[in-house]
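Q: Fold this one first, please.
A: Sequence and structure below.
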Amino acid sequence: MPSTVVYKMLYDHDTATLRIIFVSGLIYDYKNVPEEVYQAMKNSGSKGTYLNKHIKGHYAYEKVG
């Protein structure tokens, strides 16, 4: 089921950066995210809920663009 908040997720294994592209068009890079956290989000039933509980406030981020 598509997320109503997260449009797309990209993960860079070399830098452990998780890029979140929101439905709104905003893009954020979350730094030093372990691959298992990315995989858990990818497999979660609600991407937005997972993002709010396990990523926001836990990893440094920067707005892209």
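Q: Good. Now the second chain.
A: Here it is, same layout.
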Amino acid sequence: MAYFEHEGCNLHYEEYGHGTPLLLVHGLGSSTLDWEMQIPALSAHHRVIVPDVRGHGRSDKPRERYSIAGFSADLIALIEHLNLGAVHLVGLSMGGMIAFQLAVDQPQLLKSLCIVNSAPEVKRRSRNDYWQWFKRWSLMRALSMGTIGKALGAKLFPKPEQASLRQKIAARWAKNDKRAYLASFDAIVGWGVQERLSKVSCPTLIVSADRDYTPVALKETYVKLLPDARLVVIADSRHATPLDQPERFNQTLLEFLTAVDTTTQDH
């Protein structure tokens, strides 16, 4: 367990293995535990660094407005704190948004980028968008974190044999600081860097579950805006792909990272 300080906030991170630095960034309401099925496989080849985003896990939960740009600044501070140079960056869901933000702001810090079940913007455009957002916002304020966790577990892991994953998510969600969770949710809504995607110069892997919240078509659209990107669709998976299809996900990611590292060495 290690901590570093950025702008008066103590941020928790963990490190495993040796090799090219690889940062894994979790989603909303989660923590380093998002990556428990990845760390053993990835740390056999890489120096894996897993932070808790501000307001999450063992990191401080300051009473303030959060922003995706602020979360990204925390990551940049961690890269500098550990003197990593250029890193491989993987982000899941909200972590993917943080990764996109870092990639457009500081492209020179990345060797590669992997975005999992995420998007480069969350804009409310239609009346329906506003209504859906308002519904979710109201529910999240009304319900306890435990109740949200149970509902989420059922949605993410609906199969009978996924009972232990459902219980795990429900238990983890209940531990969230509600105020920090809502502040992080508010940071997502209205955020976007889609118009700046041409700045992402590194090789990029977009991973989409076939049954993610947002359709594969959405990912196909923004893959075209990235200079050097490809899309991999993982079958029989929902929003938490690293947990529901760990072997397939790990293999896909490792193949991508190996290809990037090999190309870099050749130059």
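Q: Anything worth noting on the second one?
A: Residues 2-122+191-266 form a domain with the Rossmann fold fold (CATH 3.40.50.1820).
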